[in-house]
Amino acid sequence: MYRYVKRGFDIVGAAIMLCLLAPVMGVVALLIRMKLGSPIMFKQQRPGRGEKSFSIYKFRTMAEIYDAQGQLLPDDRRYVQFGNLIRKLSLDELPQLVNVLKGEMSLIGPRPLLVDYSPYYSERERIRFTVRPGITGLAQVSGRNLISWNERLSYDITYVENLSFRLDTLILCKTVLKVIRQEDVIANPGQHNLPLDAYRLNNREESA
């Protein structure tokens, strides 16, 4: 039953948060424009419910730095202190409230990962695509980037199989506490976790 009313909670919750956080988002946008320049927003294709791709919105937190050939440097070479602070406070995720209003995301659900990861999920892990992806989720309040990919995807399965108003409320409360305490936040997650595709390929090679 909750699956059918969850969308209503998302719309009301996202609308209220956008109204309350509009001044904060305005300040963040201004600071990004001053310190990092344009563009202020970062958009990227991510798979949503039914694996249908959509453009996820985030505040940009990395510098636009290019090599001698005009190619954008890898992510781990474009992290800057200001951007790290924005990520540490989770302010970069606020534009995703617009994704929620558009029906592409939910406030709570499995995080939408890269499109390139699609071939590397097991059949059971694909249950994550039966619900809308979330701004925060069970994996995010259970260790975030500090846990392995297998654990993170296992938490996604647990969430979908036990979806309820009580679970969503618990995740939302834990998310607020983690943001306040700044727990489990890694400025440069690439230094601590391999991308899912590399992680799965390495595991296959080790088990071969």
Please summarize what this structure is.
This protein is mostly helical and 208 residues long.
Word description of this protein:
This protein is 43% helix and 10% strand. It is mainly alpha-helical and 208 residues long. The protein has one domain. It has a two-stranded antiparallel sheet. A two-stranded parallel ribbon has the order 3-4.
Write the layout of secondary structure elements.
Blueprint: H1 2-35, E1 41-47, E2 53-59, H2 81-88, H3 96-101, E3 106-108, E4 134-136, H4 149-161, H5 165-181, H6 196-207
DSSP helical segment count = 6
Query: Roughly how much helix do the residues carry, as a percent range?
Result: 40-55%
The shape, in one word, is globular
Helix-strand makeup class: mainly alpha
Order of helices and strands: HEEHHEEHHH
**C-alpha-based Rg, rounded:** 17 Å
| Major sheet summary line | 2 strands, antiparallel
Strand content is: 5-15%
How many E strands?
Answer: 4
> How widely separated are the two ends?
44 Å
Number of domains: 1
Main-sheet strand order equals: 1-2
Low-confidence segments, ≥5 residues, pLDDT <50? none
Q: Name the average pLDDT.
A: 87
